[in-house]
Structure prediction request, 682 residues.
Amino acid sequence: MPVTLKDIAARLNLSITTVSRALGGYPDVAAETRQRVLQAAREMGYHPNVIAQSLQRRRSNTLGFVIPATERYLSDPFFLELLSGIGDGAAQRGFDLLVSTCAPLSSEERTVYERMIRGKRVDGMVVARTRKEDERISYLVQEGFPMAAFGRTALALDFPFIDVDGEEGVGQAMAHLLGSGHRRIGFISPPVYLMFTEHRLAGYRRALERSGLGFDASLVVEGNLSQASGYEMMGRLLDLGDPPSAVVCGNDLMALGAIHAIQERGLAVGRDIAVVGFDDIPLAEHCHPPLTTVRQPIYEIGKMASEMVIQIIEGRELQERQVILQPQLVIRESTVTTERG
Amino acid sequence: MPVTLKDIAARLNLSITTVSRALGGYPDVAAETRQRVLQAAREMGYHPNVIAQSLQRRRSNTLGFVIPATERYLSDPFFLELLSGIGDGAAQRGFDLLVSTCAPLSSEERTVYERMIRGKRVDGMVVARTRKEDERISYLVQEGFPMAAFGRTALALDFPFIDVDGEEGVGQAMAHLLGSGHRRIGFISPPVYLMFTEHRLAGYRRALERSGLGFDASLVVEGNLSQASGYEMMGRLLDLGDPPSAVVCGNDLMALGAIHAIQERGLAVGRDIAVVGFDDIPLAEHCHPPLTTVRQPIYEIGKMASEMVIQIIEGRELQERQVILQPQLVIRESTVTTERG
DNA sequence: TTTGACATCCAAAAGGTTTTGGAATATAAT
DNA sequence: ATTATATTCCAAAACCTTTTGGATGTCAAA
Prediction:
């Protein structure tokens, strides 16, 4: 049913080669012939079969991205923003995006990646939420497969990535809190297996040590990046005999959960307890009170990542293989004393 | 470099046909031969070239989904949940998912769909957030292309869909508010071009008329489903000479924005003004106060939708072509009077 | 007239798989 | 011994495209 090059060739009494080359803009076809081909293609409703092109060109013009879905009801707006960045970056260069979800650290993860890569479904991968020991990345590097990551690893591997300086980001947050007079500051940590946890925790620790306060392990609790875990972990901190007066959260979602826990106990966020998040998802601005948070340009990072992978695929040299962006603290009411809670 | 059927055939002195059929589990290959093929394939690290398979089978085993991204920084967790449902449903049947983003009603929209479909990149599409006059759906129906939608349309077209009874959902919310004594109830509407707006608005209107209160157009404002617009529109309602004592929002995100606007004016959500959302995204439970909302099982709907499309692709008859699910009101503190605001 | 350059076209191979329609051999039934 | 029936294998076509390496014809220069 669908129109192929063969159909056009038959109608115009030309060879498939000529039709292909006319459409492809090659110079070895007469201007008049090209016009006839173009018109016939339009009239007949020709659309190239992308699959056949991929097979022949040995290029699928497709990027792969596996969303590390921790929960079934995956809800972190972070990924949606990242996804749309990756998708837009890819689309701009004529690439499509193949998406899967897979629980991080699960046994199927390897299979999902292999299916995409070995099956030649994709030409490159974007990896997000990197781990200290990231088997996804060691696999890709070992295969020599084009990729770019959002985040670093603890592995001694040289691969292209974009990351945000989490130590600096949390450092800014801590400086802000310490400057406001806080002396007991808690930290709701992301899972330790994630690389950025190390950086953010380092920012927390260093700020405490520099200010002479010292690190107190009892003020650090580990969540899983969901609101629910932020809620739960904040509860634990509040149950402490001497609870903190401020808390830095590993991401915005946990901060929202923490705010909920604080408010549920009749305390006022900002006045009684200060809360800082990380990410600056759109919701951070519109919760109550608006959340002070460390902003990372997620959409732009996604876009950059897909652009980097495509550059690699196309064999062009990367001007910057490893980018570390400086985050920016956005101060809102969750860390300032106001009348209302 | 990658291992092909040809390589295995050469090593075992067999034909490509036999290797293919051995791997494919056909009965016309000797048990011993099959074993040899299987082992060689394993040893040599054979992975079928999915692209070549797609070309030959005329099936890409891929579903397409275009996220209607209204803003650049797309943040509605709704879509992430839907996406993971679609992806999981597809994966369970061996289908991949190709994702694009595109502004709804934009001129590129048609191109994005055409590229996927005419290029044979996908075997079926899932369409979300249906419009009253939905060109995406009329295009797909006209092409006879396998699809399933989340939502209905105003078009006289027979296509497979899953929808939630929005009229009933808002009806429940209204009954709850009216039962709590509210007499002036506002409605922050989704964009009118969307089909579900009609249903939800009908639920609002009917509840008012039934209760003898009558419909007051000045209490209805139109947002764009973002928190920012919920914030802005709530502001307008509050600026009214006689502001409502309760407000029903077209989705949770706008409800969160509305809560923000209310609290910013020093009013207490729940006590002073009741707020109801629609969706029950995970954040609804963890905002302050927790949001009363109409729950729709987004993940399950996504999963069902991809299952439906795949059934159609595989030529199996659908037992239920058009499904309308009953939503459920989840009552939380945003509509009940409490001490704290 | 021959040579070379140029313009225009095309047959065939290649990419990796599945499927069709036998072929070849062995075994069982007549 | 012949026919029928399984069993096991394979050559070739097909899916649709791109690319290679000419072929053919024209025209101008030598």
Observations:
- Chain A has a mean pLDDT of 93.
- Chain A touches chain B through 61 residues (CB under 8 Å).
